[in-house]
Write a structure and sequence with these properties.
Elements: E1 2-4, E2 18-19, H1 37-40, E3 46-49, E4 65-71, E5 85-87, E6 98-101, E7 106-109, E8 116-117, E9 123-127, H2 142-155, H3 159-162, E10 165-171, E11 174-179, H4 184-189, H5 200-205, H6 208-214, E12 221-227, E13 231-236, E14 257-263, H7 266-274, E15 280-284, H8 286-292, E16 298-303, E17 309-313, H9 323-332, H10 335-341, E18 348-350, H11 365-374, H12 378-387, E19 400-401, E20 404-405, E21 409-413, H13 417-430, E22 436-440, H14 444-449, E23 455-458, H15 465-471, H16 482-493, H17 497-514, E24 517-523, E25 525-530, E26 537-539, E27 542-544
Parallel strand pairs: 2-26, 4-14, 4-15, 21-22, 21-23
Antiparallel strand pairs: 1-5, 3-16, 6-7, 8-9, 9-11, 10-11, 12-13, 13-14, 15-25, 16-25, 17-23, 17-24, 18-24, 19-20, 26-27
Helix pairs in contact: 7-8, 9-12, 10-13, 15-16, 16-17
Length: 549
């Protein structure tokens, strides 16, 4: 699962339920005792096909090699601090400092013990347990954590968020961070593979560029061989220990070696699985599901990531300058057509909100409100267009106004899933006389930021609402964002978790009322694996394999 600058949920060992990553505090000033029921509820990774049984590891001999195929998920490096994107599997080479527990609303220990915070949220303290070693045998200490955090501040792709840390120090095994302000965005980094702990000696002797593929972070495994475009060999770290409460085996993993192969041809990956050459497939599409559904000893598991794919409308375009026209589009877009374009609801879920249940501080009231107010009403949408002067007066199938045909709308999209949805939207809109030209480009973000678009697909993968609500759309000159940004900043920095729910809801509604970003759908993230791998654990931004034999 690719995370473009991204993360929640609790783990069930039997059903492969997803557990959360994000952040909050234990201090009274950040009381989590009133986290609402919807937020605390775990969202299952639904088993579509096959039977998952808990395996008694005491009676099973560990396999020598676990063979994993990843479709279109070539890694960018081992120093995930520098990487623009990371994948679920990389969590086993980059142990997070903490995990987020949605049942309690608190950070739990993983590499480090659970943190404590000062009452104002600006001082964070945590302990690094003894007995952990890097793959080279060097002992992991608090100095390595501090040096790695400084690396994030200096060189991290998320350095603007790491920069919230204003002072780093350690005494013995205790690390203390002094923060500019309490920040859920920073805590998300510490529960995901946007951060890893690297040996201080490596940080001091290797250049930033050398670290990208030569860094050996602390994790259950490390990269012992890398073939560009081909894959990686992961070797067990015998000095691994963890506090991860989701795992029974908190010491070194059972399986000594994991072979990861990257595929650009999904059918070749499916064929390798059917031939018994792979045990686990990650990032598959509906093609793999259709082929392997019902196959003996095979489990197909589907889950929704923390993101929504949206369409942004340019209010500076002559057609979209009228807010009623933009609102009409929200009524006319048929999400069921988008869902069918992905083969049905197995692979795609329609969305009517920006912050879904897999993002922190989700409230279902927003979805209900948007559905009732701004969606799925063709009659109302056409009436609003007519009120704005757009009708098919000459019967040629194209809307016109004042004797002039509606301009063809250029719909920018990246290839892949967004293109599939864009073509579905094009078909729907053209049936109402709205001419749309879908243009596939690698520069959707750049064009949107420059305001050079009519319509554009946009999305962002992140499970913390503060950063998500800013980065999920790309044109930030479409409306005056002053009030919106101020509210979103409060979402990130508010110490009152219960109050944050209301602010997340208010921020979403504020943006929705502008009618420049229309939520559309989320595509499922599907994994297919041999049923003997029942003890694998998934979280939103990672997976753990320590309990697999």
């Amino acid at each position: 699962m690719k995370k473009f600058l991204c993360i929640l949920l609790s783990i069930c060992m039997v059903m492969c339920m997803m557990t959360g990553c994000g952040g909050t505090t234990e201090a009274p000033a950040a009381d989590t005792s009133n986290v609402n029921a919807d937020q605390a509820k775990a969202a299952e990774s639904t088993v579509i096909s096959g039977t998952v049984d808990t395996i008694d590891n005491s009676t099973v001999e560990a396999r020598d090699v676990l063979r994993i195929g990843e479709y279109q998920e070539e890694w960018e490096g081992t120093d995930v601090i520098q990487c623009d994107s990371f994948y679920d599997l990389q969590m086993i080479i980059a142990e997070p400092l903490f995990l987020y527990n949605h049942d309690t609303g608190e950070l739990e220990g993983c590499l480090a013990e659970a943190p404590t915070f000062a009452e104002d949220g600006t001082v964070m303290t945590f302990v690094i347990p003894e007995g952990r070693t890097f793959p080279n045998g060097a002992e992991l200490g608090a100095d390595d954590v501090v040096a790695s955090l400084q690396h994030g501040i200096n060189d991290g792709v998320m350095n603007d968020t790491f920069a919230i840390i204003k002072e780093l120090s350690y005494e013995g095994n205790t690390v203390t961070l002094k923060l500019e302000n309490y920040s859920t965005a920073l805590l998300i980094l510490l529960v995901s593979p946007f951060f890893c702990v690297i040996d201080t000696e490596q940080l001091e002797t290797l250049t930033t560029e050398e670290l990208r593929w030569n860094a050996v972070p602390f994790g259950a495994y490390y990269v012992s061989n890398y073939v560009e475009g081909g894959g990686v060999t992961l070797t067990r770290n015998d000095g691994f220990k963890t506090l991860n409460s989701n795992l029974e085996n908190k010491d070194a993993a059972y399986i000594p070696t994991i072979e990861v192969t990257w595929y650009e041809d999904e059918f070749a990956m499916i064929a390798a699985y059917e031939a018994g050459e792979l045990d686990f497939l990650i990032g598959v599409t509906e093609d793999s599901v259709a082929t392997l559904n019902g196959k003996d000893n095979t489990v197909i598991s589907s889950s929704l990531p923390p993101m929504v794919r949206n369409v942004q409308l340019n209010p500076n375009h002559e057609f979209f300058a009228d807010k009623n026209v933009r609102t009409a589009f929200s009524y006319l877009i048929d999400r069921s057509v988008i869902v069918e374009s992905f083969g049905g609801d197995l692979m795609c879920t329609p969305q009517y909100e920006y912050i879904t249940e897999n993002v922190m501080y989700h409230t279902p009231e927003v979805e209900d409100w948007y559905k009732a107010t701004y969606s799925d009403d063709v009659e109302k949408g056409l009436a609003m267009l007519e009120e704005a002067g757009w009708t098919d007066s000459d019967g040629d199938g194209i809307l016109d106004k004042d004797g002039k045909p509606m301009p063809t709308l250029v719909f920018n999209t990246a290839s892949g899933k967004n293109e599939t949805a864009a073509l579905a939207i094009q078909m729907t809109l053209q049936s109402y006389g709205i001419a749309v030209d879908v243009v596939t480009t690698t520069e959707t973000t750049e064009l949107a930021k420059a305001g050079e678009y009519d319509m554009t697909m946009c999305n962002y993968w992140w499970s913390e609402p503060g950063r998500y609500l800013v980065n999920m759309f790309k044109d930030h000159n479409a409306f005056d964002e002053t009030e919106y940004r101020a509210l979103v900043k409060e979402v990130e920095t508010d110490l009152d978790n219960e109050g944050r729910f209301g602010k997340v809801e208010a921020a979403q509604k504020m943006l929705m009322e502008e009618m420049v970003v229309i939520p559309l759908y989320t595509t499922s993230y599907v994994k297919i694996y041999d049923s003997s791998l029942a003890n694998v654990h998934f979280i939103v931004d990672g997976m753990f394999v320590n309990d697999i034999k």
